[in-house]
Amino acid sequence: MLAVDDLVVSYGRGPKRVPAVNGITFRIDAGECVGFIGANGAGKSTTLKVLMGFIYADSGNAEVCGLPAGAPESRRSIGYLPEVALYYPFMKAGELLELYGALGGMARGDLRSRIPEVLKQVGLDGRQGQLLKTFSKGMQQRLGIAQALITKPDLLIMDELTSGLDPLGRYDLHEIIRGLKKDGRTIFFSSHELSEVEALCDRVILIDRGRIIREVTQAELRTVGRERSLEAFFIEQVRSGGTGDA
Ligand code: ATP
Predict the structure, then answer these.
(1) Residue 45 in contact with ligand 1 by CB distance below 6 A
(2) Atom of ligand 1 nearest to the CA of 192
(3) Ligand 1: which atom is nearest the Cα of residue 21?
């Protein structure tokens, strides 16, 4: 579903060039739920933006559903939750979802029933007519998730999954993710909440200073969980440059 090969990405040019991703390679198969973890500035958002086609790599290759990242046909099968979502403040929640649904190729008639359904799914039941400028941060995050789910995409790419959500919101979202997994969707998300990564993911990719330093499978995650938390493991791996035992 996702294939990244020797990807190198930097920002700026010449002496102002900032390296962000330094030659990463990974695969994600259909139906997998994979967590992307790493310290601040490690290169997570940059990688996800390349997969979405928002920024271009200096070199290497990124494919989504067998198509080059950013190809319009590949974008149709992706639901994307940005790290920071800035929605137009004078739009109503329903209007925003109508816009995203239409951009995703949905028919007006289907959207009429889908919008209240997806708002209910994310705990924003009855908020369709509410202006976005009156939404709290957590409500905006929930709306971002609704926006990502509106077209029932096969692949979800989510940057900082539960950022800004209260414990109830996190619980609800975890239930949504479990439902999507059962449904066979492919999910790739970044998060600093390592307990949620541990609870939800089949596999975890650990990135540090633009390089993948570890990939941890479900079986290894279970071993980690028995001996120490994923958080303790994460700190150990980042400090050792990925040479610690799972
Ligand atoms: P966080 O967990 O803090 O969101 P991240 O792992 O998502 O971090 P990135 O946002 O991908 O990290 O950043 C990787 C590197 O690229 C960092 O050094 C960051 O400063 C740099 N960077 C990111 N965006 C830009 C930009 N627009 N211009 C210049 N440098 C950038």
Answers:
(1) yes
(2) 2
(3) 14
**Cα distances (angstroms) measured from residue 200 to each of 60, 145, 180, 191:** 30, 16, 11, 11
Q: Give nearest CA residue, ligand 1 atom 19.
A: 41
Count helices and strands in the chain by DSSP H and E runs: 9, 10
CA 9 / ligand 1 centre spacing (Å): 11
Is the pTM of the predicted complex or chain greater than 0.90? Answer: yes
The residue assigned the tokens 């028919």 is: 107
- Asked whether residue 39 carries a pLDDT value surpassing 60, the answer given is yes
In angstroms, what is the span from residue 44 Cα to ligand 1's centroid?
8
CA distance 197 to 143: 21
- Condensed to tens digits (0 to 9), the pLDDT of residues 96-127 reads 999 999 998 899 999 999 999 999 999 899 99
Half-sphere exposure of 20 (CA within 13 A, CB side): 22
d(CA 110, CA 23): 42
Q: Helix 230-240 crosses helix 218-227 at what angle (to 10 degrees)?
A: 100
- Residue of 34, 33, 63 whose CA lies nearest to 50: 63
* Residues in the chain, overall count: 246
Question: Which residue blocks in 81-200 are alpha helix, DSSP H?
Answer: 93-103, 108-121, 137-149, 167-182, 194-200
pLDDT single digits (tens) 200-224:
999 999 999 999 998 988 888 777 7
Residue nearest to atom 10 of ligand 1 (CA): 45
